Amino acid sequence: MADRAKVNKLVLTGFMATGKSQVGAAVASRLGLPLIDTDAEIGSRWGKSPAAIILEDGEERLRYLERVLIAELAADRRPAVIATGGGTLVDPRNFVKIAAVAVVVWLDARAEVVAERVGRSAELRPKLLESGKPLMERIIELMEERRPAYARAHFRVDTSDITIHEVAARVIAGASSHGFTTCKASA
Predict the structure, then answer these.
(1) pTM of the predicted protein model
(2) Residue of 51, 89, 50 lying closest to 70 (CA atoms)
């Protein structure tokens, strides 16, 4: 893990539809820091959304692009809030690189909450379609598969029953207690 005296990045990881992008925006706004959403950055740089990359080029291509981006973000000395794609930090290489310079926060939610959020979203989620299983069964399966990777984070916030602003407040408080040095005292 990072030398806590040098931590100037806050990274949000977790399963799809747990609020990483929205919470990241709220946290970045409160702290006056830039937000880097890795899914949006990949889409901007490589001209396709992560979902389109998986469907057209395969998941391995997406995971490679994530490794390139995470290596770059870890090497950048500027403070930032980073919202990652749901599978980005499942790759242990990405986790090791980013945890060296960041407090990593696992945003979690109950499976039924994820299913409801996914159902309300127009966003294509290829990982949920892979097995042909019913949505809830696939969500539970994939969450269990990824749980050990997410559990490496410094701490966890359950987003199931609280607002984005409440999640953001908990993220900021927890990050500060884990050595995140750019937190404002008033946040």
Answers:
(1) 0.91
(2) 89
How high is the pLDDT of residue 132? 81
Tens-place pLDDT, residues 39-70: 999 999 999 999 999 999 999 999 999 999 99
Supply the pLDDT for residue 141.
Answer: 95
Adjacent-strand bridge partners of 81: 10, 35
Task: Give the residue from 93, 97, 94 showing the smallest Cα distance to 85.
Answer: 94
Residue 126's H or E segment, with its range, is: helix 126-129
pLDDT < 70 regions, the chain: 1-6, 122-124, 182-187
Q: What CA–CA distance (Å, rounded) separates 95 from 78? A: 18
- Distance between CA atoms of 25 and 94, rounded to whole angstroms? 22
Query: Interior CA angle at 41 toward 38 and 42, to 5°?
Result: 85
Q: Kindly tell me the burial class for residue 158, based on how many C-beta atoms sit within 10 Å of its own C-beta (0-12, 13-18, 19 or more).
A: middle
53 with 62: CB under 8 angstroms?
A: yes
Instruction: Give kind and range of the element (H or E) at residue 12.
Output: strand 9-14
CATH class of residue range 4-177:
alpha beta
Using CA atoms, how far apart are residues 28 and 33, in angstroms rounded to an integer?
5
